[in-house]
Every structure is written in C-alpha cells, then in structure tokens.
Amino acid sequence: MAARPLILGGDESAPLSNKMDLEIVSAIIRAHFDQKALAHIRIMNARSNAKGAITVITHPNATAEMAMQYRDMITTAARSVDTGVVDVEQNETWEMLKYHAIPLVRYMGKGTEGLQKIREEFKVVNEGRAMPTQVRWQANPRTIWERRQNGEIAVSLVVFVVKGSRLAQSLIKKGIKAAGVWYGVKVFTNAGPDSRCELCCGSGHIENNCGNKPKCGYCSGNHCTSDHK
User: Fold this and answer.
1) Which of 18, 47, 52, 211 is buried most, with the most CB atoms less than 10 Å from its CB?
2) Which residues partner with 98 through β-bridges?
3) 70-118: per-residue pLDDT in tens?
4) What is the DSSP string of 31-96?
5) Is this prediction's pTM over 0.85?
6) Helices 71-79 & 19-34 angle (0-180, nearest 10)
7) Average pLDDT in the 56-67 region?
8) How far apart are CA 58 and CA 172, in angstroms?
9) Rounded Cα gap, residues 12 and 14, in angstroms
10) 204 shares its domain with 221
C-alpha cells in the first residue's frame, strides 16, 4: 500500500468515510479501550482526503494536542488495518496575533533595519522555539510614518502569524521578548461593528484604517492609550 500519514484533528467537511477508514476508527477505539486511555480523548471518525492522507476526527471535547499523547497507540492500531500508515501528525491551525506598543524609533525609518531587526531579536532571545512568521505593520507603513513625523504616534502595532493554538495561547499569556523588552500579545481580529480602535478609542474600525487623531482611553489626552503615563 502507498505510504500516507494519519492526521489528527481532520476536517469534518472531508468526503464521507469509506470502509477502510471505518476499520481504522474501530481499531483505534478498541486499542484506546484496551489501554484504559482517558475516556474523553477518543476518535469519532476518519476520512481520506484528496491527497490520500487519513484525517482523523477527534471528539469535540478533545483537541488534537490532547490525542497526540497516544500517538504510538494510534499508529499501531491504524497500521493493523492499513500498513501504508507511516506516522501520526497533528493538524495545527495558523493563528494571527499582534504585538503592542512597538517603538517606531527602533523599528521604522532610516538606519533602523525595519521589522527585519525585530525578527532577528525574537530569534536570538527565543532560540529553539517556533518563531512568528509574516511579521508586518498592522497599518499602512506610509500612514504610520506620516503620523510619527507629525508627532501623533511614537509606537504602533505589528501583526504576525504562529502555528498552533498552544503557542498562540502561550504568547498571549506571557508576551514575547525582544532586546530585553517584553511586548504584550493579543489576538488579531478584523474590524466589525463592535471593534474598538486602539488609536482614537472610536468604535466600528481599527487602527489600520483610522483617520482620527490619537485619543487616550484613560485621560482623553491627545496620545494613544498605550502611551499613557
């Protein structure tokens, strides 16, 4: 049989299960029971995707990360039905987050090396860890630069992407360090009716399309909330 991976946390929209997939599910469930594995971490279904990989649907109360602790058991059980199964992988999602209060004097303008500098600083301080990718300014760089030149802002937000909800939650909880400074991290969300702009504190939009002057959420002064002293 052709080699193919077995992916935990598969897509429910994949084609309906075939006989082989159902036999794999049965083998995994029986192995799960025999080893007295935790009852709430179990497999619900399995489906072959267009590339031949088997996507395994976990119980709604169990994440793929939780099921991965039974990786060897799952692999052995699946191979008892289909010897083409070579390994178990985790289907991780990409999470978009944002850094707060990134100082423009260090990362924007001539002689600063721009965002490449902060990428390298993250890499040095967090060696061995999965690093953010697709790092970019949340707003249009030209707009940010003009506001900085006009004295309206001294910091801005940077958007980035990480792989896996566990890493995302860890960064949100602890923040991330660069050049000795800890930066707060939040989930990045697109603008909606209930959105609140962190530049002017207005509703219905976010910083990247704000045309208003900065307004502090604490004192209503002419500066960003993040610059409040």
Assistant:
1) 47
2) 159, 186
3) 888 888 888 888 887 777 776 666 788 888 888 898 888 887 888 888 8
4) HHHHTT--TTS-EEEEEE-TTSPEEEEEPTTS-HHHHGGGHHHHHHHHHTT-TTEEEEEE-PPEEE
5) no
6) 130
7) 69
8) 25
9) 5
10) yes
The position carrying tokens 């598969």 is 10
What is the β-pairing status of strands 94-103 and 155-163? antiparallel
> What is the radius of gyration, based on Cα positions, of the chain?
23
Domain of 116 in residue numbering reads as: 94-188
Residues sharing a CB contact under 8 Å with residue 156, sequence separation 6 or more, in sequence order: 102, 104, 108, 137, 138, 139, 144, 207
Two tokens, residue 48 = 């072959």
What tokens appear for 100 in the block? Answer: 């707060």
Cα 93 to chain center, whole Å?
A: 6
Euclidean distance between CA atoms 57 and 42, whole angstroms:
9
Domain boundary among 56, 90, 124: 90
To which residue do tokens 């630069």 refer?
145
Q: Which regions of the chain does DSSP assign to beta strands (E)?
A: 4-8, 43-48, 54-58, 85-90, 94-103, 133-137, 155-163, 176-178, 181-183, 185-187
